[in-house]
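lol ok so funny story. i was supposed to be doing the assay writeup but got distracted and ended up predicting the structure for this chain instead. priorities right. anyway since i did it might as well share w the group, maybe its usefull for someone
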Amino acid sequence: MNSQELIELTKDLIYHATHFDVPYVKEIYADKFLIANVDKDGGVETLNKEQLVAFVQGNKNANIAPLSTKTEFHYAICDENMGMVVITRELELNGKPSRKFLTVIWENISGKWQVVKESSIVRD
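and the output, tada:
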């Protein structure tokens, strides 16, 4: 996979995740997935795959409107088994606009590209 293909894969991820596509989320995130969310004060909260799926399922069940897919791509690199994409996302969370700087780490696991790690830093 090249960098542009990794960007396209990340665009698909963003679309499906922001539209609360639970089967897609279960498939695209690796079982070992972990995200570290850093707030504006430097506090860190983590979320694993089970917690992420529960969040997405809860939003779907509550008929929450899809989140914004607005994304600025800064950098992408990929080799045979690993890829990294650096982006800024504009979201509205809990009724408040939020800009987040994210790093998404992809891994080719048994012939299938999955997200294994993410970091998210508030950029407001």
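The CA atoms of residues 90 and 99 lie 5 Å apart. The domain at 3-123 is CATH 3.10.450.50 (Nuclear Transport Factor 2; Chain: A,).
back to the writeup now i swear
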